[in-house]
Recover the amino acids of this structure.
């Protein structure tokens, strides 16, 4: 039962992240939204891997790899946002700077 | 096995050395890495040709515990195409990424990024593990985005950020599908998944993975990130990004729909994929017509040219896989992947020569350059023959095989796409070709070493040779192909 | 009782997640994001996945949080930290709901769990912690590529420096007052952190811990020392720093090649040698991961000026 709670939380977090990605235009917000989607997926995955008699170590290892990959992508994205702000004075993409 | 592993280890080792070694050793070690990896890729193709598909379980652990790698005809052929493009890129970058020309920052970063991208592409071409493919795709994404941003210009930074946004969204969609299929089947291996007991969630998993890979392949309507990114990068980087990077995600799509879950390939799904491909052919072609810069024309043409490959889904997928025309249609699409790679790299490298010569790639500035730089003009024209699908190029072989499949299967509507796309390509390539071959020179070019000029010409000639000598690559691509029961027409 | 606890924890995670997306102000969103990561780490501990809990807290909450905070500071200096308030966006809400519902449906449609049987393989892996066995032995190729990805991200990040700043020290410069809190903090914390980080790597073979978690702790130590001025700011031109970056992936790669020459194949570890080999690879990886993470957080060389 607890596993279902964690899995549903994971699914909802993915939804929250998707909303943030689509509705927010400040790029730091979008980077956080990506991380929310990723961690929601991982929570779902972790709950799925805990259903058997013993905890399956493979999802755990994949999740740790995924967390590190997400950090690498976030670091490059953050660098690009700062570089964008330096050259254009905004942390939003050119055609979206006027929107919400 | 040694050849397969060498193609992964050598570019990684060369990249690590290029990062750590002092500046004066960087170019020699990078070029050494390029030469050795090229040799390893050709060696792998020769071993696949003589021994059939090669399978390796890494660390001695069989799936589902470990990761399996498998080099089939398609993977090895893409490996050789990649190696040829990379070698050409390296020869051009020797001039364009020279520290005195490009500055210490760019000349430091280009070589490790290029070698890491190459290693990641080779890893994706042979991996049989869905999560390992995810890791490979992420390495491709980060290196490709960095290569877009490397010029440091404001529009390049914005294009790189937009590219990263789309690519990460694609990665997460793909990852969601991977998570669902492991949760359901306890394996990530493509061959084991093919033998799984199907469950209702499989369609969702395949749909999510497919959506993510379509974003990464820049299929219409997910193509908006591609032209600005590919045209903002320096020419050698554009050549890799356009010729090679979309092929990696496209290959995974083929592995999923033809090998892992072929029974989910319903006519509606296959029609949708090809329909989007057809729209990409038309929309990419129309937008290419409207561009005033050579690199943007070539970049929009990538959107169109990738579209053709998606015709493989209804012509050789699903129930059609067992039909006599499937082998031909499938191989035609693979010829398009290989031929487009060689021709597109040639075009971007030619554009790089023009930018080095006259400082711009506007059509008004490259006017008449064929007189001053005849080899480059000839290279662009030869590469155009492949994009147009005229005989005897690889593009012709591709379209001929796809066309035969379309008529044989009674799906003649796709033949209109092939013909219409060819006419559009003629229209959008007419302008750059008439500009380059104009009688009067607009801007007097700086001299370009002939060794550099020869690079795109060799690539363009290879794209034609692939069509001329198509029977050997045709047989090679059949090695390890799924549904091999059927003979070609 | 434990179900009530889990429901409360999940409600808290969702609330903080919502605040990260919908709350006012980018800075507050970052703070919520860090809190979110820490709560999620508790969730992982509740699921019994202690290695993931450690990674989530150290990497997702800690390092990503520091990255975002540092970026926010720089954006504020460039007056790009402000954003328009969130307006209701119906299409986005529909898509988000659809995605969440689809995943929710998939959970209930899952067949009985089918995890691969590792009982025969684990004793051959050389380590007692099954997660470490998967990361460093069964799926070592993933882990090797993952270390390479971190390195690729760093090279990519450096490409965002301005050409005129290329030879400057990395990052914006911090100035700690002599005898101030930061300076004394910077002298006391590193030895403790160092011991903890090394312990995590060593323990990872048998219980919770590992190269990435230990590397993160070492990175934190190194960052504090840099901020306190105990360590001089690194430069790209310094060969020692670049050698430290490639050392771990290089050792990993070469040990894989040694497996191809002397054992059953690429990345193969003979059971008798597996334990010492894994500990060696992890030690080398930890050093490189720590250095890579430090350099990822402090960012490319920056002279602080604005573009024309």
């Amino acid at each position: 039962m607890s596993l279902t709670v964690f899995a549903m939380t994971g699914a909802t977090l993915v939804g929250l992240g998707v909303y943030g990605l689509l509705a927010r235009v400040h790029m730091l917000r979008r980077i956080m939204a990506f991380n929310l989607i990723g961690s929601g997926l991982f929570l779902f995955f972790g709950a799925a891997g805990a259903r058997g008699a013993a905890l399956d170590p493979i999802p755990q290892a994949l999740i740790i790899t995924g967390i590190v990959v997400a950090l690498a992508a976030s670091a490059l994205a953050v660098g690009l946002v700062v570089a964008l702000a330096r050259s254009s004075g905004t942390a939003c993409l050119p055609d979206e700077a006027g929107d919400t | 096995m040694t050849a397969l592993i060498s193609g992964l280890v050598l570019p990684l080792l060369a990249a690590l050395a290029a990062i750590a070694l002092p500046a004066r050793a960087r170019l020699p070690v990078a070029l050494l890495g390029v030469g050795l990896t090229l040799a390893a890729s050709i060696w792998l193709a020769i071993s696949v040709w003589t021994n059939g598909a090669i399978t390796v379980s890494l660390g001695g652990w069989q799936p589902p515990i470990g990761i399996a790698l498998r080099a089939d005809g398609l993977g090895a052929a893409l490996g050789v195409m990649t190696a040829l493009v990379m070698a050409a890129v390296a020869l051009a970058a020797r001039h364009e990424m020279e520290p005195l020309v490009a500055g210490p920052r760019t000349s430091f970063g280009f070589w490790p990024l290029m070698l890491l991208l190459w290693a990641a592409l080779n890893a994706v071409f042979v991996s049989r593990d869905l999560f390992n493919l995810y890791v490979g795709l992420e390495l491709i994404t980060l290196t490709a985005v960095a290569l877009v941003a490397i010029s440091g210009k404001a529009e390049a930074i914005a294009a790189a950020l937009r590219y990263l946004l789309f690519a990460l969204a694609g990665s997460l969609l793909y990852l969601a599908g991977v998570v669902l299929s492991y949760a359901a089947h306890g394996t990530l291996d493509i061959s084991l998944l093919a033998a799984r007991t199907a469950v209702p969630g499989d369609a969702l998993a395949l749909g999510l993975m497919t959506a993510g890979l379509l974003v990464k392949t820049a299929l219409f309507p997910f193509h908006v990130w591609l032209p600005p990114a590919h045209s903002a990068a320096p020419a050698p980087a554009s050549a890799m990004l356009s010729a090679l990077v979309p092929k990696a995600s496209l290959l995974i799509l083929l592995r999923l729909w033809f090998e892992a879950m072929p029974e989910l390939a319903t006519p509606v799904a296959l029609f949708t994929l090809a329909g989007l491909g057809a729209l990409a052919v038309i929309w990419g072609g129309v937008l290419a017509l409207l561009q005033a810069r050579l690199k943007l024309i070539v970049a929009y043409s990538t959107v169109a040219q990738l579209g053709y490959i998606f015709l493989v889904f209804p012509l050789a997928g699903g129930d059609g896989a067992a039909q006599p025309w499937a082998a031909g249609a499938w191989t035609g699409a693979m010829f398009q992947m290989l031929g487009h790679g060689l021709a597109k790299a040639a075009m971007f490298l030619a554009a790089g020569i023009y930018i080095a010569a006259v400082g711009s790639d506007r059509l008004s500035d490259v006017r008449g350059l064929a007189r001053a730089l005849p080899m480059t003009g000839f290279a662009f024209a030869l590469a155009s023959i492949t994009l147009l699908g005229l005989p005897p190029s690889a593009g012709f072989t591709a379209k001929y095989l796809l066309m035969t499949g379309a008529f044989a299967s009674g799906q003649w509507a796709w033949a209109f796409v092939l013909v219409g796309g060819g006419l559009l390509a003629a229209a959008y390539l007419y302008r750059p070709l008439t500009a380059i071959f104009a009688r009067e020179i607009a801007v007097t070019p700086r001299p370009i070493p002939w060794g550099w000029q020869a690079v795109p010409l060799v690539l363009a000639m290879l794209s034609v040779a692939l069509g001329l000598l198509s029977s050997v690559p045709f047989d090679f691509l059949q090695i390890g192909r799924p549904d091999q029961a059927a003979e070609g027409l | 009782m434990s179900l009530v606890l889990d429901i409360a924890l999940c409600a808290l995670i969702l609330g903080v997640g919502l605040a990260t997306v919908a709350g006012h102000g980018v800075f507050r969103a970052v703070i919520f994001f860090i809190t979110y990561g820490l709560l999620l780490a508790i969730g992982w501990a509740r699921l019994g996945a202690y290695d993931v809990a450690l990674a989530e807290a150290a990497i997702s909450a800690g390092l990503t949080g520091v990255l975002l905070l540092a970026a926010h500071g720089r954006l504020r200096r460039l007056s790009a930290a402000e954003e328009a308030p969130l307006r209701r966006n119906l299409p986005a809400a529909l898509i988000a709901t659809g995605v969440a519902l689809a995943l929710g449906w998939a959970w209930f449609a899952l067949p009985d769990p089918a995890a691969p049987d590792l009982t025969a393989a684990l004793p051959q892996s050389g380590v007692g912690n099954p997660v470490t066995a998967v990361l460093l032995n069964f799926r070592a190729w993933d882990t090797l590529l993952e270390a390479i990805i971190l390195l690729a991200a760093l090279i990519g990040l450096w490409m965002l420096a301005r050409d005129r700043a290329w030879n400057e020290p990395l990052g914006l410069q911090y100035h700690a007052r002599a005898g101030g809190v930061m300076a004394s903090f910077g002298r006391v914390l590193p030895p403790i952190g160092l011991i903890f980080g090394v312990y995590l790597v060593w323990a990872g073979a048998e219980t919770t811990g590992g190269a990435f978690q230990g590397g993160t702790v070492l990175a934190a130590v190194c960052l504090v020392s840099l901020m306190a001025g105990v360590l001089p700011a690194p430069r790209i031109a310094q060969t020692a720093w670049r050698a430290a970056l490639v050392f771990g992936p290089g050792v990993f790669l070469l040990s894989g090649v040694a497996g191809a020459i002397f054992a059953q194949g690429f990345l193969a570890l003979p059971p008798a040698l597996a334990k010492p080999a894994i500990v060696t690879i992890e030690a080398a990886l930890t050093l490189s991961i720590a250095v890579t993470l430090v350099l990822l957080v402090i960012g490319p060389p920056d002279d602080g000026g604005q573009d024309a």
User: Anything to note?
Assistant: The radius of gyration of chain C is 22 Å. The mean pLDDT of chain C is 90. Chain C touches chain B through 57 residues (CB under 8 Å). Residues 50-77 of chain C form the longest helix (28 residues).
